[in-house]
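Record minuted for everyone:
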Amino acid sequence: MFIRVIRGQIFSYMKIERPGLIVADHWKDYQLLDCGDGLKQEKWGPYTLVRPDPQIIWPRSGGATKWEGWDGYYHRSETGGGKWEYRKPLPDHWTVTYGALTFKIHPTSFKHTGLFPEQAVNWDWFSAKIKTARAANREVSVLNLFGYTGAATVAAAHAGASVCHVDAAEGMVKWCKENAALSGLAAAPIRYITDDCLKFVRREIKRGRKYDGIIMDPPTYGRGATGEMWKLEDHLWELLSECKQLLTDRPLFFLINAYTARLSPSVVINLLDGLMHDTRGRIHGGEVGLPIQRDGKILPCGIYGRWESA
């Protein structure tokens, strides 16, 4: 937000758009078939999975009491965790595609599949930014923190960026490498780093590295590679402040995703406004969601905040 003071009055040059909903509705290999009674029924390529979702507090469409035709059903335990029930043996993993990108799907013991399909709207957004810059013969470097299995990393690399992928879990970093190879990007300029994100950022500052775009998907709670405790409310602003020092003189974008119910989109917008107040640009944020095929409702799947250069 560029600030100009005229006769004691303050004028802002940051354009801020308040919360809105963006929907990932361009999928072909993924469908959210139906939702209700705390569950969602999804088609991941050739297989249909049923998984719990605490936000789905409305009943199933048409009064249905159960779904038929599923291949895998995750049963949550009352004591925590849960387990998968399969009607037939499924492969350990399979793939789905989004445009030119290919991702490995593997149902994990904690109900996840290794991919958050609602994030496709963000992949499309920053990919367009990267492609525009590359078309102008500009090199683009991107830092992806809390990178998980690397869908955003792969999308940014496919768009033409060099990417640094950081996650504290070695298994997630290896999964990112697999996704890159599946997408034909095994030789792409991607750095794969297993590390605590805050410690890594501080070392990058000392090394003098700079990035044109930063993506982060911080958890509510977490632990670093050597057991460091992460708590979103206590550590996010500290991390953002450090990340600001890694931006180039002409940054392209800064993206924050969050899944915690404790934050509203306006909180993320306020964080970005405080962070980028001296950089001309535009901030917008809101919810990301997926269309429910059965009845046309939208399932909210988290919040986002975006800063982009003017």
Remarks:
- The chain has a mean pLDDT of 91.
- The CA atoms of residues 255 and 306 lie 5 Å apart.
- The first helix runs from residue 120 to 135.
